[in-house]
Amino acid sequence: MNCLQNLPRSSLSPLYGFGGNQRVPSSLKMMMLPIKANDLKLRIVFQAVSDSKSTSAEVSGVSNKEEEEKSDEYSQDMTQAMGAVLTYRHELGMNYSFVRPDLIVGSCLQTPEDIDKLRKIGVKTIFCLQQDPDLEYFGVDISSIQAYAKTFTDIQHIRCQIRDFDAFDLRLRLPAVVSTLYKAVQRNGGVTYVHCTAGMGRAPAVALTYMFWVQGYKLMEAHKLLMSKRTCSPNLDAIRNATIDILTGLKKKIITLTLKDKGFSTVEVSGLDIGWGQRIPLTLDKGTGLWSLDRELPEGQFEYKYIIDGEWTHNELEPFTGPNKDGHTNNYVKVVDDPTSVDGATRERLSSEDPELLEEERLKLIQFLETCSEQPQV
Predict the structure, then answer these.
(1) Whole-angstrom distance, CA of residue 255 vs CA of residue 120
(2) 73-111 per-position pLDDT tens digit
(3) Do 89 and 55 form a contact (C-beta atoms < 8 A)?
(4) Fewest beta carbons within 10 Å, which of 51, 89, 199, 377?
(5) CA 204, CA 313: separation in Å to the nearest integer?
(6) Which residue in 148, 175, 164, 150 sits closest to 375, CA to CA?
(7) Closest CA to 206 of 142, 162, 146
(8) Contacts (Cβ under 8 Å, ≥6 apart) of 90
(9) Interatomic CA distance for residues 316 and 344, integer angstroms
C-alpha cells in the first residue's frame, strides 16, 4: 500500500528566517502553572522538577548557564511556532506524563541512565521522534542511549523522525510513524514511551493520533484526556488531514506557480509543503519571460512566499492573506477535491472540529498501519 512517508521530498536548500526552526530538548518532570495572557493565547509555564541526577549537560560538560540559555531560546522558538507559551527546562532532567496506563508522553532521554528509569515503570518501547539537529542542539548523545538500550531484551528504542515545529511535515509523516508505533506496540506490549524534545508538540500529536486511529477514541475525547494529563499543544489539523489523506487514497494534485521576470537573478519559494525553513528554486523560461514551479500537493490550503534575489515578498497578482500575527502577508493556494464526490464528502465530514470515524474507516486505517512500510531505523 502506498505510504506518505515513502513519497520523495524535493532537494532543498537551507533557508534563514520565518519559522521552521529545528532544535532539541530532553527530559524532565513538571508541574503546570497557568498564567494570564494579554493576547488570548494559551500561556502555560512548565516548572520542571528533576528526578534525574545525571543530565546531558553534566555528561557533555556544558555549563548550567549554557543549558539555561538554550532552554530559553528553545522555549521562545516553540512559543512562536506553536501559538502557545510553553516553557521547557532541559537542564532539569527528563519529564513525562501517563496518558493511559499503557501510554506515556514525555520529553527526550538525556543519558543512558534514563533507560533504567523507564524500565522500572514498565516501558517496553521508547519511541523517539527527534531529528539529529534536535539532539545536537542540547548535546544529547543518542548513540550511547541506543547502545545501552540494546543491552536489554525487555525494551526497544525506535527512532521515527519528524521535523520540529512543522505542521505539514507532521501531517506527511504521521501515517508511516504511527504505523511503526502500532507494529512496535503489537510486538512489544507493555508501556510505550513516546517522546520528542520537550514532549509538547510532536510526541502528544503522535500519541493522540494513535488513540484516535487505533484505540477507539473520538479525536476531541482523546484530546481532552491528553490535556488532562499533560499541558501541551498537538496540532489537531495535521491529525485531521493525515486521517483524510489515508482514507481518500493519499491523492495529490499538481499546482503551478508563475512569476513574471523583471530582470531577477534568482527566484525561490518557501512555505507550501516544505515549511518556512526550506526553499525551492523556480525556473526561468526566457521565451515566455516567466519563472515557474510545478509542485504536487495534497488537499488543503498552503501559504507561501517568494524570495527574489534574497528578498522576501508576496505576489499581489496571486491570492494572499492579510497580515498575520507577526505582520507577514503571504500568498496561498488551495488544493481541493470535488465536494460532491465521495472523497470530497469524507473530507468535509472529517474536517469538522470533532470528527468521528466510522467503523469501516477505522478498519481501513488499521489495515493501512499493518501494511505500510516502516520507517528505516537510525
Answers:
(1) 52
(2) 999 999 888 888 899 999 999 999 999 999 999 999 999
(3) no
(4) 377
(5) 34
(6) 175
(7) 162
(8) 25, 26, 27, 28, 55, 56, 57, 67, 70, 71, 74, 107, 110, 138, 198
(9) 30
C-alpha cell at 124: 517496553
What class is the 67-246 domain? alpha beta
Who's near 180: CB < 8 A, 6+ residues apart? Answer: 158, 160, 374, 375
How far is the C-alpha of 42 from the C-alpha of 52, rounded, in Å?
Answer: 29
Q: Using CA atoms, how far apart are residues 265 and 303, in angstroms rounded to an integer? A: 23
Per-residue pLDDT tens digits for 112-142: 999 999 999 999 999 999 999 999 999 999 9
For residue 140, give the C-alpha cell.
544529547
pLDDT tens-digit map of 235-287: 999 999 999 999 988 788 899 999 999 999 999 999 998 888 789 999 999 99
**CATH 3.40.1180.10 holds for 252-335:** no
Q: In what order do the strands lie in the sheet with 96-100?
A: 96-100, 103-106, 191-195, 123-128, 156-159
- Enumerate the active-site residues: 196
Domain boundaries of the chain, sorted by first residue: 67-246, 252-335
Whole-prediction pTM: 0.75
